[in-house]
């Protein structure tokens, strides 16, 4: 009887953790989807207001370069420090990078902040 109760408790804990995991993954996918759709749609207007048409390619390049480069590093860090802490820090860096992008006054600042956002996306 005690073994059966312990198994039921264990199954309930696993189901609860699975729900939290799926919620976290959905939040990350939402941020990624919002980033791609919003930036892609608003990019011409942003570049027009900041006056940096010659640096427009760097906006996407900085993001893609940093996010691609950080993925293997994030894997090693996740092995060392745990996946949960790296995942949460990645979300935090991504959100901070997004806020900084919204406050950028020049194209150079925006490119740097997109790179920071890319680091968060890679994590």
TrEMBL record:
Record flagged with keyword Glycoprotein: no
Membrane-topology descriptor: Multi-pass membrane protein
GO cellular component terms, A-Z: plasma membrane
Transmembrane segments: 20-43, 55-74, 86-104
Principal subcellular localisation of the protein: membrane
Limits of the Major facilitator superfamily (MFS) profile domain: 21-123
Gene Ontology terms for molecular function: transmembrane transporter activity
Origin superkingdom: Bacteria
UniProt keyword annotation of Transmembrane helix present: yes
Protein's recorded name: Multidrug efflux transporter MdtP
Record organism: Anoxybacillus flavithermus
């Amino acid at each position: 009887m005690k073994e059966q109760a312990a198994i039921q408790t264990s199954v309930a804990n696993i189901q609860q953790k699975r729900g939290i995991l799926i919620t976290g993954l959905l939040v990350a996918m939402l941020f990624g989807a919002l980033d791609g759709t919003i930036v892609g749609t608003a990019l011409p207007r942003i570049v027009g207001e900041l006056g940096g048409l010659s640096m427009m390619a760097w906006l996407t390049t900085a993001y893609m370069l940093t996010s691609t480069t950080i993925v293997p590093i994030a894997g090693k860090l996740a092995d060392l420090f745990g996946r949960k802490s790296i995942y949460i820090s990645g979300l935090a860096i991504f959100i901070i990078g997004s806020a900084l992008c919204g406050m950028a006054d020049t194209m150079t600042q925006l490119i740097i902040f997109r790179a920071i956002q890319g680091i968060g996306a890679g994590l």
